[in-house]
């Protein structure tokens, strides 16, 4: 269900203007559907209505501050200067509010800042892959490992991919939906231990070892 996957990928990055710790800022699309995914995300980005959060017609709100908007734009400009192709968005909006348009990049290399750094804004890179192993390899090159999602019609393949991703949270055919009974936390340079689930309760516990000689 490619339209569902495209909509899910868009929600993963544009919800709350990308200001979410589990935002899906890197999309890897199988080569055969890459162009359709790229076009779909760009079309969604251009169509989103920006406005105040209290306006029921708004589909995406502003960034938290002028300084953060400037930080996001500086990363976008770095992507352009390093050779990534800007497909949608890319310029701060004039007027009141710290609005930044949903922005989509193609041809973003793995060494570019927009690929390596956490943007914390509505900016996504879309990269093709040939095999699931290549997709996992590309995803695992990040120094972060908090969250990922796998979109597939083959559930067994989805589970295999999820197991190989170096990420503390992996959703299959969804993104960002919490489950309080399961632990949440990151790998590598992401997170501070685990929240929720049994592992989340253990942070409040002290472990004691008692050893007795029985002879």
Give a structural overview.
With 215 residues, this protein is of the alpha/beta class. The chain has a domain at 2-130: Aldehyde Dehydrogenase, Chain A, domain 2 (3-Layer(aba) Sandwich), CATH 3.40.309. Helix content is 33%, strand content 15%. Strands 1-4-3-2 form a four-stranded mixed beta sheet, sandwiched between helices. A two-stranded antiparallel sheet has the order 5-8. Strands 6-7 form a two-stranded parallel ribbon. Helix 1 crosses helix 2 (34-47). The longest helix is centred in the middle third of the chain and has 16 residues, at 66-81. It is globular, with a radius of gyration of 19 Å. It starts with a helix and ends in a 14-residue tail after the last helix. The mean pLDDT is 96.
Task: Name some characteristics of this structure.
215 residues, 4-stranded mixed β-sheet, alpha/beta, two-stranded antiparallel ribbon, Aldehyde Dehydrogenase, Chain A, domain 2
The CATH superfamily of the domain at 2-130 appears as Aldehyde Dehydrogenase, Chain A, domain 2
| Side-by-side strand order of the widest sheet | 1-4-3-2
Question: What's the average pLDDT?
Answer: 96
> Which class best fits the helix and strand makeup?
alpha/beta
Estimate what percentage of residues fall within beta strands.
5-15%
CATH fold call of the domain at 2-130: Aldehyde Dehydrogenase, Chain A, domain 2
Based on the structure given, which CATH architecture of the domain at 2-130 is correct? Answer: 3-Layer(aba) Sandwich
Unreliably modeled segments: none
* Broad CATH class of the domain at 2-130: Alpha Beta
Q: What distance separates the N and C termini?
A: 68 Å
Please state the overall shape, judged from the principal axes of the Cα atoms.
globular
Sheet with the most strands? 4 strands, mixed
Q: How helix-rich are the residues, as a percent range? A: 25-40%
Number of strands: 8
Taking all Cα atoms into account, the compactness measure Rg is 19 Å
Helical region count? 7
Q: Output the helix-strand order.
A: HEHHEEHEHEEHEEH
């Amino acid at each position: 269900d490619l339209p569902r996957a495209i909509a899910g990928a868009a929600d993963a990055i544009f919800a709350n203007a990308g200001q979410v710790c589990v935002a899906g800022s890197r999309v890897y699309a199988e080569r055969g559907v890459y162009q359709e995914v790229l076009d779909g995300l760009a079309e969604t980005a251009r169509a989103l209505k920006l406005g105040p959060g209290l306006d029921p017609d708004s589909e995406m709100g502003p960034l938290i501050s002028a300084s953060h908007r400037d930080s996001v734009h500086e990363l976008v400009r770095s992507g352009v200067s390093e050779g990534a192709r800007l497909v949608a968005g890319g310029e701060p909006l004039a007027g009141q509010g710290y609005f930044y348009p949903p922005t989509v990049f193609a041809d973003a290399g793995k060494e570019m800042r927009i690929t390596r750094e956490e943007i914390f804004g509505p900016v996504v890179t879309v990269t093709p892959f040939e095999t699931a192993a290549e997709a996992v390899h590309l995803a695992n090159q990040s120094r972060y490992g908090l969250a990922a999602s796998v979109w597939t019609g083959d559930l067994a393949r989805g589970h295999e991919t999820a197991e190989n991703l170096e990420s503390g949270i992996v959703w299959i055919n969804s993104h960002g939906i919490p489950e309080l009974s399961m632990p949440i936390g990151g790998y590598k340079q992401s997170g501070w231990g685990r929240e929720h689930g049994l592992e989340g309760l253990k942070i409040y516990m002290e472990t004691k070892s008692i050893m007795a000689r029985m002879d």
